[in-house]
Design goal:
By secondary structure, the protein is mostly beta strands. Helices cover about 5% and strands about 45% of the residues. A hairpin with a 5-residue loop joins strand 21 (about 290-300) and strand 22 (about 305-315). It is elongated.
Length: about 400
């Protein structure tokens, strides 16, 4: 056989084998055929709602860079939040160019200042090309901690003037924020001497002013080492009063484990301690008794023990959360009377204190709070609904002329 022909035939065979080998191994620029398929995930979003429209941004991540174009479709799905009411329905396609690993989708959430339960909606991924879906659905959580919380204003009211009295101070809570010229925030979660379960804070989540009312909100949430939060306010060193008439118009939380109170301590509390300073409970309610409030006077007896004069007042029909009621104190040098809706149900006089020092002849400051749990009410139960609210429409102090 001709030698050049044999040589050419051998070279042809070698070239053919090499070509097959290149195709089988993905040689040349086709080595991307053996790339692992990247995966896509979408991330949850949780944000506080704003007063005006704003964006929830959903980040979509590709697990690795790809030399191919990756696409995926997305669309919103209703939850407790509804498209058109709470957010704008959004859908489309995301395109990852080669080398890109993160893109995002913005969804417009409607602005609203209403305080209400948190809401959610969802973002769903589908029809991924050149990738697989590892986390195809994200939850959007809207936290509705706005400071607008309307409530029905029905109920008992008292006048802003009385014959023989002069209005010397009031807080009508008509502004947009608590007046810190009048009020101090107390904070902490150590039980407050009663084994209470809440942590008191100054956060707007727990205390705010809305539509002419002071609102204290008790929540079931982890804060510090406590499982509940609430608020406690006082006027110590800012607004202190001695004698006259006091009216407080309020609507109360009444579920099991709740303990709202409108009360006073003597301004000498820091020097004499409790109960020597005297305590006047204009109103306390124990949640398991939603139709009943308690009025009390506490002092220190001569033997060091606590003395108490108190009584209860019960409604005949609606409970104390359904309408506003006015809790009042008529206070003179030698006697105190506690009232609900102008009905006297507690009377204490200097003669009631046979031993010890009569403490109710010095100025006192207000304390408004909503406790959760404690020795008296016990803890909330599974039926207790949170959040719980105490609304205070006004506090007014009158002095005899």
């Amino acid at each position: 056989m001709n030698t050049p022909m044999i040589k050419n035939f051998v070279l042809l065979i070698i070239g053919f084998v090499c070509c097959l080998s290149c195709k089988k191994s993905g040689g040349g620029n086709d080595n991307n055929n053996n790339e692992p398929t990247p995966s896509l995930k979408i991330n949850d979003v949780t944000l506080n709602r704003q007063n005006s429209d704003f964006a929830f941004r959903f980040f979509v991540d590709l697990s690795a860079k790809s030399s191919k174009t990756v696409t995926v479709q997305y669309s919103t799905i209703n939850g407790t939040a509804k498209a058109g009411e709470d957010y704008e329905n959004t859908s489309g396609t995301l395109t990852f160019q080669p080398g890109e690993t993160e893109l995002y989708v913005d969804v417009t959430v409607k602005g609203d200042s209403l305080r209400q339960a948190q809401q959610n909606f969802y973002m769903q991924l589908s029809n991924a090309q050149n990738s697989k879906l590892s986390i195809p659905k994200a939850t959007a959580t809207i936290i509705n901690d706005g400071t607008y919380l309307p409530t029905n204003n029905t109920g008992y009211s008292t006048p802003d003037n009385y014959s023989g009295y002069k209005l010397t101070w009031s807080d009508e809570f008509d502004g947009n924020a608590l007046n810190t010229n009048n009020w101090n925030y107390e904070s902490g979660g150590g039980g407050w001497g009663n084994n209470e379960l809440e942590y008191y804070t100054s956060r707007p989540q727990n205390v705010f002013v809305s539509s002419g009312n002071l609102i204290i909100e008790a929540r079931k949430e982890n804060y510090g080492s406590n499982n509940y939060t609430s608020a406690r306010l006082n006027t110590a060193g800012k607004r202190e009063f001695q004698y006259g008439r006091i009216d407080i118009r309020a609507k109360l939380p009444v579920d099991a484990g709740m303990w709202p109170a409108l009360w006073m301590l003597g301004s000498n509390f820091s020097s004499t301690g409790w109960p020597a300073c005297g305590e006047t409970d204009i109103m306390e309610l124990i949640g398991k008794n939603p139709y009943q409030v308690v009025g009390s006077l506490h002092w220190k007896k001569g033997d060091g023990s606590e003395g108490t004069v108190n009584n209860t007042y019960s409604l005949s029909s609606q409970n104390f959360s359904q309408e506003f009621h006015v809790f009042s104190l008529l206070w003179s040098a030698d006697s105190l009377q506690i009232l609900v809706d102008d009905k006297v149900y507690v009377t204490g006089t200097k003669n009631n204190i046979a031993t010890g020092v009569y403490p109710f002849d010095v100025p006192s400051f207000f304390i408004f709070n909503v406790a959760v749990g404690g020795d008296w009410p016990g803890p909330p139960n599974d039926a207790t609904i949170f959040p719980q609210h105490m609304f205070v429409d006004y506090v007014r102090v009158f002095k005899k002329q």
